Amino acid sequence: MRGVRAGPGRALTVAAPPLPVRDGLGPDRLRLPVTDPARTILGFLHRAEPGEDWQRHVAAGELVDEHGRPVTEDTGYQPGRFVYFYREPPPEVPVPFPVTVLHRDEGLVVVDKPHFLATIPRGAHIRETVVVRLRRELGLPELVPVHRLDRMTAGVLLCTVDPALRGLYQQLFERQRVRKVYEAIAPYRPGLEFPRTVRSRIRKRHGELTAVEEPGEANSETWIELVERRGALARYRLHPRTGRTHQLRLHLNSLGAPIVGDNFYPRLRRRAPDDFSDPLRLLARTVEFDDPRTGRRRRFDSGLTLGF
C-alpha cells in the first residue's frame, strides 16, 4: 500500500520504509520467500516480476534492502527479508473534483474529500487519492489520514503531518472518542418513525466488494434522524456509534431506503471508471473531538452539499 497500512478500527498506522516519499508516493515492498533457491536478490526479482526494469532500479540506487543498503548485481539472496523500490503506477482516470483544505496547522490538515476520490493508495487507485494529491500539492510528504472515508463518500477527513502526533489522533478513532455526523439522501419511508436506532451484525469478507448483515449479536449501531422530505426523497442525518465497513449504507438499505447513487446496495452495479455522473449521496458532515494535544474541543464541518 505504498507506505500506508490499515490498522485496527480502520485507523491507519504508518510503516517506516528506507526510501523516502517521492512525488507523493512511498516505495513498494517485496518479501523474499524463505524457500526460494535464488542465488542473488536480483536473480529472484527477474524471475518473480520479469516486467519490472530491475536494472534501472539498481543503476539509480533505488532498489534497497530493509536497512536501506543498495542491492547490486551480486547481492546475495536473503530469505525472509524485504526489498524496497519505486514502482511506476499505471495510468488512471483523473477525478475531476478538488480536495478543499478546511484547516491546517503544524500537526493537522483537515479537508473536504470529494466523491469518487479514494483516501489512500490501494488497488487501481494510486495517484488519484487524497494522500498523494495533498502530499504533492502541499509539499507534505509525511501526511497520512487518521481515519478513512470510502471512495464514494465525500466530506470531512482528518490527516496528520507530524509522525509524532499520529498515534494520539488515531487513538481517538480507535477508542470511539470522535463524534461523527453524516448526511444522506435516500427514499422517504412514510411507514417509519424517526429518530430511530438501527443495530445489526455486519460481516465483510476479505476480497469481496460488499458487506452483509447476518443473524447474531449486533456489532454496529447507527442513530438516524429525518431532516427533511422532498417528494419521494428525504435527507437523513446519521450518527454512527460504531465504524463497520459500509455501515451507514447497509443500515439505510435495511430500512428500505438505499442511498441515492449507491452502486453496491441493494444490488452491485458496475460503474465505468470515467463515470462521475451519479455520486453516492453520503456526506461526512461533521467531525468533533477533544484535541489530545490541547484538551480543547474541536469541530470541523464540511462545506459540501448533497443535492436531491
TrEMBL record:
Catalysis performed (reactions): a uridine in RNA = a pseudouridine in RNA
Gene3D superfamilies to which the protein is assigned, alphabetical: Pseudouridine synthase
A family per Pfam: PseudoU_synth_2
UniProt keywords, alphabetically: Isomerase
Domain Pseudouridine synthase RsuA/RluA-like: 108-253
GO BP, sorted A to Z: enzyme-directed rRNA pseudouridine synthesis
GO molecular function, one term: catalytic activity, acting on RNA
PANTHER family: MITOCHONDRIAL RNA PSEUDOURIDINE SYNTHASE (PTHR21600), PSEUDOURIDINE SYNTHASE RSUA_RLUA-LIKE DOMAIN-CONTAINING PROTEIN (PTHR21600:SF84)
This protein's name: RNA pseudouridylate synthase
